[in-house]
Amino acid sequence: MSELIGSIIVLAGAVFLFAAGLGVLRMPDSYNRIQTGTKASTLGTILVLLGLCLFHPEWTGKLLLLVLFVLMTNPVSSHALARASHARHVPRTEKTVVDRLEEIEGPGDGA
Question: Does residue 45 lie in a domain region?
């Protein structure tokens, strides 16, 4: 029974990972691509790792450490990429209505 539940959880994780890849292809600018790829891939990776915990209970400690690592590094790395893109004035899509970072920091000099 745990193998069936593990398989369903791994499959759900694979669906989220596929959605992340599809979202990266379909989004109009780099900021949306970063957001789409990070959120869906984080959830997908965590679901796959949790599903593997049910397949291999002896690996649970190591897999939970990996979950913690993914939870800490994915948001931080995507935030760093978005801030660097904004600092380099990577163009946004025309549909972008609000840029809160520019409102706070000003237009900047592009350095």
Answer: yes
Nearest alpha-carbon partner for 5 in 50, 41, 70: 50
- Identify whether 12 is part of a domain: yes
16 falls in which pLDDT band (50, 70, 90)? very high
What DSSP assignment string belongs to 20-67?
HHHHHHH-SSHHHHHHHHHHHHHHHHHHHHHHHHHH-GGGHHHHHHHH
Dihedral of the CA atoms 23, 27, 32, 37 (nearest 10)?
20
Total number of domains in the chain: 1
Residue-range definition of the domain harbouring residue 22 = 2-105
pTM assigned to the model:
0.83
pLDDT in tens, 52-85: 999 999 999 999 999 999 999 999 999 999 899 8
C-alpha closest to that of 64 among 53, 56, 76, 78: 53
